[in-house]
Write a sequence for this structure.
């Protein structure tokens, strides 16, 4: 360590490291990449400061921003980046203070609104920033990459994120994830980039650290910048092997209760509607073939799925049937989210030529013929018309078919209303499903004997590799759409566009939450931002719940993975290779890569995620 003024010539530049006679930092000749082994476990090295340009002379900044700014990487001086913020643009140069008596740390944290670990960090910022002594020397800049659905972040999304934050710093959007490449490996969110404000050099990074590890790391970085002896890295405090933030995330995975209210369905919680819906769910006569009902592909003995790679109705479909025990909790329905309510979802299979191959006219006739009394008792608001006149009400038909298009507008509306009510009754039934508690629920409730050591190890890997970013909360899902390059299930191997194909179908449908058939159009989410084709939705699929997982295989939207070990192996390699045409899009930056051991270790935990259905 040196004290007093230290001048080191590097090339043609001169560096003054110490202002006002304060302690100075030792400098090495070349850009130091000294890796500090002690920190490798704690999320990477902390680099020594090694500026090569005189940034402050005679106590005055020599430059408005370091001129040597080159790259967005560990050890490099950051370019003067600028981000769209809450109150105008936020430029990195605002943080540059070459003549400050002591270095401060700019902590740039990248989060997404869908991300469970980011939510924890946002809400617990005070847990590591709360120490005033530390806070005086730390400035936080929060960057948001994406919204709840994983669409690129916008200003309204930023303001929603602000509400979750427990500490105040600047907030800006960064839809292109500028700092993705700072760490050599792909890292789960939230991603921390820590910058010395005297030089604007990235001195360390971290990913989803525990609060105490991050605090310690910041303390060590400051001590090093001040030229003090490096404090020891504290031993992690754990309970049964889990840090405090991991335990919080585990607790959040406890069994879900009743689904959230659905104002778009006035019958959502009407028992008589659910009773009718139950009969309709199992009724194969709503299909002209007499063979297909909802239960064909959502069988309670198979996790409310069908056990097949791709579902088979009248024909074989391209996608895997999801378990639907907790579908009533989901923000979006289908792998591509092309329905925004549960009742809207239920209308899809009837008119899908590969599933029921039925039509709204056919379904309405069946309701009138066999369920008239029950139907009229529940849905009394709009009496069903007499549909016995086959000229006025042909036996089958749906928009686009000649029989339908020739009908009078008010007759079409009357039939569509019956059809919509069928969807609302079935949704009311699905809302009564409850998953039974499993070992995770016991563990989340504090029973540490509920898991074997192998299962705990699997859970630990689930947390540390970042599965919990997306698979979080009671259903272990964020309800968002992600690109993971899972293989398609389509014949011929043609890649499935996922969300990119689902959004136009959603926007075009007459049955969305905001339109006339909804009981509360005003309660619908705004689809603003989805109007334009968004590149990141190509090949994106909805994160499925992991409850009732063991019984609901095969896995993935295409149903191409027969075992859970197949799924975790796929994750370890970050999905299908780029040139494999069975998938489109690029695997998202925050999806980590891991080895075959970790992939194996995950499985015993995933196998605990049972969830038989009670209705
Ligand atoms: C031929 C098999 C088949 C039939 C019949 C069928 N489904 Fe499905 N179901 C599927 C498949 C496959 C998907 C996924 C399709 C997609 O995402 O494009 C699905 C998706 C769903 C979802 C969305 C779950 C989620 O997590 O996104 C729900 C809810 C659902 N079905 C309920 C029903 C109801 C109610 C019926 C009867 C009206 C029904 N299904 C009939 C195969 C079927
Ligand atoms: C970036 C968000 C994200 C991360 C991180 C993530 N998942 Fe997923 N998971 C998804 C999405 C989206 C799918 C559906 C992918 C598809 O079919 O295209 C999925 C599917 C699955 C499935 C198949 C479930 C089924 O019913 O078909 C399993 C099992 C699973 N994930 C486990 C994991 C594990 C274990 C990890 C950690 C190694 C993990 N996930 C990390 C989003 C994520």
């Amino acid at each position: 360590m040196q004290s007093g003024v230290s001048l080191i010539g590097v090339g043609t530049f001169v560096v003054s490291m110490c202002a006002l006679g304060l302690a100075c930092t030792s400098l090495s000749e070349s850009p130091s990449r000294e890796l500090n082994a002690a920190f490798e476990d704690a999320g990477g090295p902390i680099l020594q400061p090694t500026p090569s340009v005189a940034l402050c002379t005679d106590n005055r900044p020599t430059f408005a921003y370091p001129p040597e700014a080159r790259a967005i990487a560990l050890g490099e001086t950051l370019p003067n980046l600028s981000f769209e913020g809450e109150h105008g643009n936020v430029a990195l140069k605002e943080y540059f203070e070459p003549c400050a008596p002591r270095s401060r740390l700019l902590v740039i944290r990248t989060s997404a609104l869908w991300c469970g670990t980011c939510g924890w960090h946002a809400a617990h910022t005070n847990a590591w920033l709360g120490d005033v002594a530390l806070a005086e020397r730390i400035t936080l800049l929060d960057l948001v990459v994406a919204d709840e659905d994983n669409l690129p972040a916008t200003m309204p999304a930023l303001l929603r994120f602000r509400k979750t934050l427990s500490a105040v710093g600047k907030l800006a959007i960064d839809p292109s994830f500028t700092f993705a490449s700072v760490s050599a490996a792909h890292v789960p969110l939230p991603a921390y980039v820590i910058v010395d404000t005297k030089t604007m050099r990235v001195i360390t990074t971290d990913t989803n650290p525990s609060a105490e590890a991050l605090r310690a790391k910041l303390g060590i970085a400051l001590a090093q910048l001040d030229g003090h002896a490096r404090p020891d890295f504290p031993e992690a405090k754990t309970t049964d092997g889990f840090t405090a933030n991991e335990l919080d995330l585990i607790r959040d995975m406890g069994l879900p209760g009743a689904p959230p209210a659905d104002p778009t369905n006035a019958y959502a919680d009407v028992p008589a509607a659910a009773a009718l819906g139950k009969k309709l769910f199992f009724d194969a006569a709503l299909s002209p073939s007499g063979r297909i009902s909802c239960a064909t592909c959502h069988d309670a003995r198979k996790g409310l799925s069908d056990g097949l790679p791709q579902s088979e109705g009248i024909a074989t479909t391209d996608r895997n049937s999801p378990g639907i025990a907790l579908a009533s909790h989901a923000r979006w329905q289908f792998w591509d989210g092309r329905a925004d309510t549960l009742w809207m979802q239920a209308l899809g299979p009837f008119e899908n030529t590969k599933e029921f191959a039925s039509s709204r006219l056919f379904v309405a006739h069946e309701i009138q013929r066999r369920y008239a009394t029950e139907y009229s008792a529940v849905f009394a608001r709009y009496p069903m018309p007499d549909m016995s006149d086959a000229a006025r009400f042909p036996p089958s038909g749906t928009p686009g078919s000649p029989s339908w298009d020739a009908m009078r507008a008010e007759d079409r509306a009357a039939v569509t209303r019956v059809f919509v009510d069928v969807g609302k009754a079935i949704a009311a039934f699905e809302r009564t499903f409850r998953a039974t508690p499993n070992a995770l629920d016991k563990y989340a409730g504090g029973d540490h004997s509920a898991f074997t050591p192998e299962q705990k190890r699997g859970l630990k890997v689930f947390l540390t590799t970042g599965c919990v970013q997306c698979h979080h909360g009671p259903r272990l899902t964020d309800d968002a759409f992600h690109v993971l390059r899972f293989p398609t299930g389509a014949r011929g191997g043609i890649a499935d566009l996922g969300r990119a194909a689902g959004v136009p179908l959603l926007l075009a449908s007459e049955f969305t939450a905001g339109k006339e058939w909804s009981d509360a159009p005003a309660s619908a989410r705004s689809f603003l931002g989805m109007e334009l084709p968004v590149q990141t939705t190509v090949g994106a699929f909805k994160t499925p719940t992991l409850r009732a997982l063991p019984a609901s295989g095969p896995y993935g939207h295409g149903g191409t993975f027969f075992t859970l070990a197949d799924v975790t192996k796929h994750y370890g390699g970050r999905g299908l290779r780029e040139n494999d045409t069975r998938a489109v899009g690029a695997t998202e930056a925050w999806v980590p890569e891991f080895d075959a051991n970790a992939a194996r270790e995950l499985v015993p935990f995933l196998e605990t995620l049972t969830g038989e259905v009670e209705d």
Residues 303 and 552 are 5 Å apart (CA to CA). The domain at 63-237 is CATH 3.40.30.10 (Glutaredoxin). The pocket of heme C (ligand 1) is lined by residues 292, 294, 296-298, 311, 313, 317, 319, 321-322, 324, 327, 330, 333-336, 345-346, 349, 355-356, 426 (CB under 6 Å).
